[in-house]
Amino acid sequence: MIGYLDGYELRFNKKGQAGGSYANIVHVGEGSTCLFVAYLISMPQLCSLDKFEGEPSHYVRIGMPFTSTQGEPLIGHIYVANPQRLTVAENPSPDYLEHIRKGYQKHGFDTRKLPM
What we know:
Blueprint: E1 2-6, E2 8-15, E3 21-27, E4 33-37, H1 43-53, E5 59-68, E6 73-81, H2 94-106
Antiparallel strand pairs: 1-4, 1-5, 2-3, 5-6
């Protein structure tokens, strides 16, 4: 399901373990919208995802209300960068950015908002 978070935007301001910057969503206030794709997963899958995302040392999982593109109010989980892992926003590596770009294209998101 495609949804959006009002007041958030995608940034690349999470520092990686071996350097580089990674995706994060940041609350910036009114006038911004962050599109995303939500999946219905089981509790064991959520626990596996927590491990993959490095929760809580790299990202922190937070329950958030969001709105589907059909206008349906729902609640889901998001991962935001642990504040100790924040850095100045930079362009991510070309390989990482291409991975993000493919996801945008797969779901019909506007890739023009991504860094070049």
